[in-house]
Amino acid sequence: EQIEKGGYEHFMLKEIFEQPKSIHDTMRGRLLVDEGVIKMAGIWDHVEKFKNANRIIIIACGTSWHAGLIGEYLIEEYARIPVEVEYASEFRYRNPIITDKDVVIAISQSGETADTMAALKLAKEKGAFIYGICNVVDSSIARITDAGSYTHAGPEIGVASTKAFTAQLTILTLIAFKLGKHNGNLGNAEFMSLISELDAIPKKIEDVLSATHELTQEIAKDFIGATNFLYLGRGYNYPAALEGALKLKEISYIHAEGYPAAEMKHGPIALIDENMPIVIIAPKKGHYDKIVSNVQEIKARKGKVIAVVNKGDQQVSAMADYVIEIPETSECFSPIVASVPLQLLAYYIAVYRGANVDQPRNLAKSVTVE
Ligand code: G6P
Q: How far is the CA of 64 from the centre of ligand 1 (A)?
C-alpha cells in the first residue's frame, strides 16, 4: 500500500497532486488545439440528439452532482441548451416528466451508484437518450448508457472524490464547447481562445499546488478546533463552494455548509460571529463587486474570512483574514482551479484532527445500495 501511495501519506493527497496529469489525460486525444477541434466520438455520433434536445437532464449523487451543477452553467452558457440537474434519488421517486426529446447525462465516478443507475433506467424506459460520464471503465452505468465519455482520471482510492471531480468538470467543459461550436452559439474566435486556455489548465493546477500546499497547512492549523464552516461563492463558484464544504465535512467531521453568496442574507448571516470561519471564492471574473460587499457584510459581523482570490487581488484581500491566491482564468475554468486549494485545506484540517482521511467513518467510495 505504501508503494501505491507513491510516497504520499494518504491516497487523497496523492490524488490531489495527480490532478495536472488526470486533467491532461482526460483531454488527451480530445482537445486538439492546433487543429482547433474537440474530438469526442460519443458526442459527435449523436450530435443531432443533443442539438435538438428539449433539454438536458443531468443526474448524479454527491460530488458528481456538484460537477453536474457546474455542467449546467457551462452547457447553458456556451451551447444555450436548457439544463436541469437532479439528485438521482429525488429524480427517480418523483414521477419525473421525461420524453424521447430529452437527453439524460449521468455523472458517476464509480459507475455503480445504485440511485444513479435506477434513475438512468427510468429515463431509458421513457425513451430518453442516455449518456454516461464515468471514471471506471466498463462499469454498470457505462454499460447501460447509449453513449458516453470516460474521465480518464485513473483509479481513485480516497473515499472523498478529488481528481475524479476535476476530470468530470473537464469533460463537461469539452462537451459544452463542442456543442456550442456545433450549434453556432460559440463563435470561432471565442472557441479558439477558450480551448487554448483549457489546454493550459493542467499547468495552472500545478502552479496552484506548489503555491498553496504550505499555505493551506498554515491556515488549517488555525481551524482544527472549528465546529462550523461556511463556504460561499457565486455563479460557477457556487457549486465549487458546495463541493468545498462537502470535502471538509466528509473527512474532518466539521459541520460545513455551502451557500450561494447572495443567499447569505436569507439565513446563514444569522450564524456569523467571530467564531465562524467563512471560505469565500472571489475570482476577478465572476460578480467580483458583489462578492466584495458580501465580504464587507461578513467582516462587519467579525466572521473569519478565508478568501480564494486571483493573484494581485486588492479589495477582498485587504479585508480577508487569510488569502489564497489562484491564477486568473475565464470564469468557466475558475471552479477547477479554485477547488484545488479547498481540497488541500479540507485534507490538512482533517489530518491535523487525526481523522482517517482515506476512509472516513460511515462513508463508502461507491454506494451500491439505496
Ligand atoms: C459516495 C462517495 C462520493 C461520491 C458519491 C457518488 O458518496 O463517497 O465521493 O461523490 O458516492 O459516487 P459516484 O461514483 O456515482 O460518482
A: 7
Tell me the per-residue pLDDT of 112-157, one tens digit each, with 9 for 90 and over: 999 999 999 999 999 999 999 999 999 999 999 999 999 999 999 9
Residue 288 forms beta bridges with which residues? none
Grid coordinates of 348: 490538512
* Beta carbons within 8 Å of 116's beta carbon, 6+ residues apart: 59, 60, 61, 64, 88, 106, 107, 108, 141
What is the atom index within ligand 1 of the atom nearest the CA of 116?
Answer: 15
- d(CA 253, CA 256) in angstroms, rounded, equals 9
pLDDT digits (tens, 9 = 90+) for 204-229: 999 999 999 999 999 999 999 999 99
The amino acid at 367: V
Protein residue with least CA distance to atom 2, ligand 1: 365
Q: Is 89 in the pocket of ligand 1 (CB under 6 A)?
A: no
Q: Is the CB of 162 under 6 A from ligand 1?
A: no
ipTM, two decimals, is 0.96
